[in-house]
Amino acid sequence: MAEGSKQSAMEENSNRSTMEDAMRRRQSAIEEAMRTQPSDNEDLKRLVMAEAAVIGSIRDAPGSENDPDVIDVAWFAVSEHNNNNNANAPLEFEKVVKVREQDVSRTVYYLTIEAKDGEAKKLYEAAVYDNWDSKRLMDFWPAED
């Protein structure tokens, strides 16, 4: 692995860890505020607590495999992987197999993608940060069997 790639991977891991830590702190602050502040509406209090528990957690999104926005994100991931690796034989997107999402300031998609590598169909994992008006490929790797 090239030194620049190692540095980039280390920075991505650090950024992901920092983002997750910030979300956990925010969630804890919301939960603490809800526990300590009086509320006339206990139903509202329970709803906000439940919502705070979801923010930042990674969850499965079954049925999203055919969502046009998710397919667009998957196409982006394969395209960026091909561009970043100057592939002589670029991967060809086939389909989205599985979708997981994480809500942070926008959405991080964790996708399992089927792509053709030459004639062979293979599975890949991708992490893509989608900020609505821009996307960033965070990671792309072969899926475990």
TrEMBL record:
Cystatin domain: which residues? 53-143
| InterPro entries assigned to the protein according to its UniProt record, in alphabetical order | Cystatin (IPR027214), Cystatin_dom (IPR000010), Cystatin_sf (IPR046350)
What ranges does the record give for the region Disordered, renumbered to this chain?
1-43
According to the UniProt entry, its GO molecular function terms are:
cysteine-type endopeptidase inhibitor activity
Show the Pfam families listed in the entry: SQAPI
Annotated Basic and acidic residues bias: 18-34
Its name, as the record gives it, is Cysteine proteinase inhibitor
* Keyword line: Protease inhibitor, Thiol protease inhibitor
Q: Which residues form the signal peptide?
A: none
In this chain, composition skew of type Polar residues spans 1-17
Family statement: Belongs to the cystatin family. Phytocystatin subfamily.
